[in-house]
Amino acid sequence: MSEKETNNKKKTQQQNWEKKNNTPTIKEKMERKRTFKNLSNTEIKALFTKDDTTHLNYKKDIGFPGEYPFLRGVHKTMYRGQLWTMRQFAGFGTAEETNQRYKYLLDHGETGLSVAFDYPTLYGYDTDHPLARGEFGKCGVAVSSLQDMELLFRDIPVDKITTSMTINGPAAIIWAMYIANAENRGIPKDQIGGTIQNDILKEYIAQKSYIFPPEPSMRLIVDTFEYGAKHTPRWNTISISGYHIREAGSTAVQELAFTLADGLEYVKAAMSRGLNIDDFAYRLSFFFNAHNDFFEEIAKYRAARRIWAKEMKKLGAKKPRSLLMRFHTQTSGCSLTSQQPEINIVRVTLQALAAVLGGTQSLHTNSMDEALALPSEKAVRIALRTQQIIAEESGVTNTIDPLGGSYYIEWLTDQMEEETFKYFDRIERLGGVIPAIEKGFFQREIAEAAYRYQKEIDEKERIIVGVNQYQLKEPTTIPILKMDEQGEERQINRLKNLRKNRDNIKVEKTLTRLRTASMKDENLMPYIINCVHTYATLGEVCGVFREVFGEYTEQAIY
Amino acid sequence: MEKKIRVLVAKPGLDGHDRGAKVVCRALRDAGMEVIYTGLHQTAEQIVNTALQEDVDVIGLSLLSGAHMTFFTDISHLMKKKKMTDVLVVGGGIIPEEDVPRLKKIGVNAVFGPGTPVNDIVRYIRENVKE
Predict the structure, then answer these.
(1) pLDDT of residue A9
(2) Most buried pick, A309, A342, B31, B126, via CB within 10 A?
(3) Per residue, what are the HEC states of A228-240?
(4) Which of A134, A247, A338 sits opposite B115 (nearest CB)?
């Protein structure tokens, strides 16, 4: 029998099955819902068979791990060679308190650090700025100068452990402090490893911790790419993030499409500066969400790898390492509930498993108290243990991309890729990512999806356990984190003393040089590093940029 | 025709989490209220001044940053100073249960935590808006 005849015969078998088992009567009378949809509102069929994947060519579309198009994973050995990095996002109060938390996490088997900064730091303000009132240490740790950075990493081997820092508007300055701290400890720049988030486009789109307008922001980012390519071969100079887009309410498809579109925008910006794509592309990293729909999330990560490899090839990347979409994952904060908080452990487990089956390079598992406050020690330990159980006990790490070849997964991966390319076309028709931001395109798409999701929950079309079904009459409570109430005062005093005791003439000199350089088109990284070495504060360095570059404001759309 | 309820939805401070505020804006609008959304990064003074200028019946504050005690206290002081006794104040976001009694004491009428159906907010406003 020829292949065509075999296919035809199988097609008949599937059609027969559907005729028998998928009739309107069965759908109406025997199925629980009229339609079954995933979180991107895509209708999911009752059964997937070979017919749904016949258009895929194994070598071209699926392939092998560590080989183009990298659908099955970026490395040849994946978790058989090395487990993902267990990296818990953490930070609160003063640098001393957070330093203690890092040591606690490392003692319990964490393998990478991830810094959460407080709001004033994210906006480039020192703790004693009037707009910082009430915000000190609440959403992360305050880092106002190199001195705080020194305390934050005291007794932590920054040449051995990698550190990821969620910082965007002032990313170049905070990175400069990390570099300066390593230098002061005698560790050369080329030995430090880690990541700065440095992704301003998703700030305009979703997370909203922007400072400067798009043009100077992009310039600072390309400066970090250029500097990193020359001096810090182990540092990821950006983490192109879908996480916050998803948390703001997007669907999985929107998260995938908008993130990759942002990524391509950065590559084009760097290339138009004259950088060679193969010199910086291998230091681009990504960051995705892991939400509730298990298979959809797995398909999303797989699709992201294939799309990125294809697009980078189109842009002229030659080295295989430039084609790799390496990514961090965090389980979804917004999927967690304040009702019956302990059951969040189960949600996190499923989400983390999806990230692992999707081939993540590093992972943060949320703590059960996410919907109440910053995590307590016990809650974060259980979250870390969840990763360790997946890694050591579940057996899912024994083989690479275990779901590859599943009719449903391959169909869904392909479908999400198609939807992504449709979004790429729409963005291009709007003139690219930045014009689309300025027209409110992403913001509206996300607000629309967020509202639809909330309505589905309110109308019980979507069940959230403990929220709109299976509620308890008596609310359950768990202990939450208490912060040192004197921390803010201590931090402000520290800043006062710093300003008094440093060499203020040197500070002024380096700030003046930075101001002059920022009005020309020089790479600003060396100037910023010089400033922070003199203990110029975050607010002072950022103040120079605010003065030269101006500030961004958005139109409020809902 | 019955006068429409006017609501100011505000995001105080540096907090950029605006998903909840936007969803609530749309739900209140769909329920027939007039909604004014301040956008992000508002100071307490800006919020109270906008509320006065727009002559609103309700101020809704959304905060996920943990800075709620500071901002709600500042806003309620300013409202007292400006004699805005006929304005209902509600809050939402990541606000620990144990802070709610303290917030009520300083004049916040209701706090809606994560998982609150938006219709509960609509109903609460309709039933409690001050004449």
Answers:
(1) 65
(2) A309
(3) HHHHCCCEECEEE
(4) A338
Residue from the list B35, B38, B40 with its beta carbon closest to the beta carbon of A208: B40
Tell me the pTM. 0.96
Helix extents (H) in A146-276 = 146-152, 171-184, 201-202, 214-231, 243-247, 252-272
Identify the closest residue of chain A to B120 by CA–CA distance: A458
Contact of B117 with chain A, judged by CB distance below 8 Å, is answered with: yes
Provide the Cα torsion A428, A431, A437, A442; round to 10°. -30
Is residue A310 classed exposed, middle or buried when 0-12, 13-18 and 19+ CB atoms within 10 A define those classes?
A: middle
When divided into structural domains, chain A yields a total of 1
Using an 8 Å CB-CB cutoff, list chain A residues near B35: 558
Nearest CA in chain B to A476: B97
pLDDT digits (tens, 9 = 90+) for A347-406: 999 999 999 999 999 999 999 999 988 899 999 999 999 999 999 999 999 999 999 999
The average pLDDT across A305-328 equals 98
Query: For residue A148, what is the domain's CATH number?
Result: 3.20.20.240
Average pLDDT value for chain A: 95
Is A67 a domain residue?
A: no
Instruction: State whether B115 and A339 contact (CB < 8 Å).
Output: yes
The reported pLDDT for the residue numbered A4 is: 59
Q: Could you give the ipTM of this predicted complex?
A: 0.93
Q: Which of B19, B66, B119 sits opposite A139 (nearest CB)?
A: B66
Looking at the structure, give the CATH architecture of the domain made up of residues B6-128. 3-Layer(aba) Sandwich (3.40)
> Which tens digit of pLDDT belongs to each residue from A92-129?
999 999 999 999 999 999 999 999 999 999 999 999 99
Average pLDDT estimate for A44-63: 94
Q: What is the pLDDT of residues A505-529, one digit of tens each?
A: 999 999 999 999 999 999 999 999 9
Structural domain for A143, as ranges: 76-252+263-278+368-406+441-458
Does B27 contact chain A (CB < 8 Å)?
Answer: yes
Contacting residues for A97 by C-beta, under 8 A, at least 6 apart: A137, A141, A483, A484, A487
- β-strand B34-37 against A327-331: which pairing, if any? unpaired
DSSP assigned state of A506? H
- Per-residue model confidence (pLDDT) at position A489: 94
CB contact under 8 A, B113 and A209: no
pLDDT tens, A265-275?
A: 999 999 999 99
DSSP for A62-104 reads: I--TTSTT-TT-SSSSGGGT-PPEEEEEE--BSHHHHHHHHHH
* Shortest alpha-carbon distance between residue A315 and chain B (Å): 34
pLDDT tier, A8 (very low <50, low <70, confident <90, very high otherwise): low
> Which of B7, B14, B15, B23 would you mutate first to test chain A, the one with the most A CBs within 10 A?
B14
Average pLDDT over residues A20-48: 88
- Domains of chain B, by residue range, sit at 6-128
**With contacts defined as CB-CB under 8 Å, which chain B residues touch A449?**
none
Does a structural domain hold residue A422? no
Query: Does A308 fall in a domain?
Result: no
Q: Which of B37, B66, B94 shows the shortest C-beta gap to A556?
A: B37
**What is the mean predicted confidence (pLDDT) over A192-198?**
98
Contacts of A451 in chain B (CB under 8 A): 22-23, 26-27
Amino acid code (one letter) for A28: E
Give counts: helices (H), strands (E), chain B: 5, 5
Question: Is A242 a member of any domain?
Answer: yes
Residue type, A503: D
- How far is residue A334's CA from residue A295's CA, in Å, rounded to a whole number? 19
**Interface of chain A toward chain B, CB-CB under 8 angstroms:** 119-120, 122-123, 131-135, 138-139, 203, 207-209, 247-249, 334, 337-339, 371-374, 447, 450-451, 454, 457-458, 464, 466-468, 475, 477, 480, 554-556, 558
